[in-house]
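Database export, one record per block. Field names are fixed; values are copied verbatim from the stored entry.
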Amino acid sequence: GMAVSFPERVKKLILIDAAPPDVLDQVQNDSFRTLVEAKDLPLFPYLLIASRNRGSIRAVLEECVSDRSLITREIIDRAYQLLRIKGTTWTLTSTFRHATEALRFKDSLSLIPHPTLVIWGEQDLIFPVTVGERLHRIIPRSILRTIPQSGHIPMWETPGAVNRILLSFLREEA
């Protein structure tokens, strides 16, 4: 919305495994698919997220990365603590519940006038690379860079590769 509504405030745009407004039906993994399917049930998505324990957090993280050895006890503990911060569960629930409201921006993607970098993990089990390829086709001045051996959160899983791509893009003249 910002890049189209206020183009003067944006110089460049970077999207990393972003979810366009109309792709919820393309969710590939079980935990996110469950949340998408249950998003309109009163209180259920909230309870589903709020009741996460370390085991279920591990399962979700395993769906987000291609290198499961990165999911250490410390990472799980940190994710668990983040989930316990007041407001986190509500924010996650609200994101799923109101995801379809983003559909109003669907036709605006082709109006983004800025150089746009789209980065995608080739092993993304949440949204397949085809979603990133579609974003690239729709956004006129975009470039797509895929990261091998990376899942849905390449900035965490393969930070070196992502940072090289980011820095190269940011150094280019607009």
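Remark 1: The longest strand covers residues 116-121.
Remark 2: The radius of gyration is 17 Å.
End of record.
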